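Sharing a chain and its predicted structure for anyone who wants a worked example. Both blocks are below, sequence first, tokens second.
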Amino acid sequence: MYKLLIKLFIKDYNEINNNKVRQKYGLLSSIFGIITNVFLCIIKVIIGILATSIAIIADGINNLTDGASSITTLIAFKMSSKEPDSEHPFGHERLEYVSGLIVSILIIVIGILFAESSIKKIISHGTINIDNFNILIIILLISILIKLWQFFAYRYTGKKIKSHSLLATATDSFNDVIATSVVLISIIFYKFTSINIDGYMGLGVALFIIYSGIKLVKEATSPLLGEAPSKDLVNLVTKKIKEYEGVLGIHDLVIHSYGPARTYITVHVEVDADIDISKSHDLIDQIEREFLESLNINLVIHMDPINLKDPLTQKLKEKVEKIIMEIDENIRMHDFRIVKGVTHTNIIFDIVVPFDFYIKDIKIINLISEEIKKIDNHYNPIITVDYENLS
């Protein structure tokens, strides 16, 4: 049903890398959320007052907050689609992450308020009015179905356009499914046992909502702080660059994300030093241009010429690679070169290690240097330690 709405209101719905199309997805999801949540709020508050159930009333107010979250998401999508300007040359797409953070904080606040009202309900030992039992059950079941519809709709759209705010809203909708289900169970339990567990069930749901909110805050702040790129993106970029004829290898890959559809990448590309520099430069320009056209990725390449014909360089490179592999196979080497002097020869190269590597930088350098000097005491290793796939 929701996919039909997408096809109906978004003409170019497959062009998800287009900012205008992403904005339309966000607007559709937000309007969908506002309408459905306001509807749920009205019917739940009315039924909650009639049934004197704090859990149902709280659930209804929670839906109203969900509607407010949809308005926040609507504004965020509208503002994040603004073109880059002098103050924000990389665009405004990170506002989506801010929106996700606001929704996450609202979830925690609702959870705390819900916990407070549930504790009061437990202390007061109140009763539930079940005169309209059948109507209560039907409305709560309808509410669960609508919330499930919201969950699948938000999750589908959030994954499709890679929106943290919509994925946070999807989690919120699923929390509402659990909350309403708990209310439903407590009413059925009261009907057949006359034991009111409304407050206890409400407290359990509140704690779950608070936990979900804290988890979402962590997920929303991660891209704002700068998180590691996905392995899929790293593999895609690496594979695509290496497919070009004339590329010998790549290293120092750095990925910056300024929003779901705005990615900047810098990388060092190795080329044969004997090939005309103009030809290699044309290759680099071609790679950068095609990345922007096909993947909407702003790629900046630093060209590294590699001497493939110097026998001493190749022989030493193989020996150093063997030394490094014996220390740990997770260490990689690049930018290997030698500079001959009168009294010594500098062996210059970079190594790449994982972020959580168990050996400290200075110790790695000392271990490798000691082994290189065993080959020839006149060799002077100059080693730079890099960390893999920065973002």
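Comments welcome. The two ends are 38 Å apart (CA to CA).
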